[in-house]
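Collaborator request, handled under Task 6.
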Amino acid sequence: MSLPCLPLILALLGAADAGPGIEPLGFQSRVHPSAVKLGEPFVYELTVTHRPTERYELVRPKELGDFEMAQVQRSRVDAPDGKAVTTFQVGMSLFALGIKTLPEMPFEIFDGQTTHRWTAPGIDVEGLSSLPPDAEEQGAELKDIRPPEAVAVRSYRLLWWLAGLLAAAGLGYLGHRYWKNRKAAPIPVAPPLPLGQRMRTALESLAAEDLPGQGRGQEFYFRLSELLRGYLGERYSFEARECTTYELVDRLQRLPTPGLPVEEVIRFTDESDLVKFAKAEASRDQCQNALAFAYSVLERTWPPPPPPTLPAPPAHGPGTGVQ
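Structure tokens returned to the collaborator:
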């Protein structure tokens, strides 16, 4: 076989792989909008009507010229008349002035056995200037993008020296921090204050705010109720803040609570619920009495009573009768 015949054989093989050409049953194309400013996106819509057994796929053109191509959206509808309609919406941009023709769009068509090719012709789009209408009167004009220019760099030695100095400074700073933290003595943490002292300080702070005098009796009862619940929960070892009123009363009645006036606590919780949730009026005198009651609970229950003293065991000595 002679070499001049080789290109002809390759061309025939390529045509056999692509399969014979298939024309669609119908084709329409349009752009939205038909005139765009430079660089602004527009939509190139291609609608192909074809046989239901065929599937059309758009192939990106190799040469786009003055255009740029972005995303492609494809949708297909099978009509009841035995035809199918496939629509392609292609995002495009134009970077030249005047009327320009979109590039031809190649399609691959698969009919279930063979892949075919068909090319859709391009349509015209007008590129508009992005300058205002009076740009020419003011001396403004569009200029082309300048090509890249070479920048001479004598040496990177200075950059390497600067990088080394920065790295050395960073290592020195980290070493100083490490040595400083290593030599620093741990700061002792003060033990928490006793419960009774913390409760008394909180009650004094609440009284100093004078919320009832500002017409904020409901807020006063919310704060006082939370303080008393927190104190009772820590004093008798249960989670009082998360309890409902019924659960709080039930726990206090079942737990050993020496010194605690349980019945008075029940009355206080009922009164608090009326003010907090039923929005009952809370006078200044009523708030003062509630604060005095909280102080009385503190006086009666703190400090805790000492644990009971266990009796000493009997001595085992001579004459006790123990064998």
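The cover message to the collaborator said: "Residues 1-19 have pLDDT under 50 and may be disordered. Strands lie at 26-32, 35-37, 41-50, 55-58, 67-78, 84-94, 98-101, 105-110, 115-120, 124-128. Please let us know whether this matches your experimental observations."
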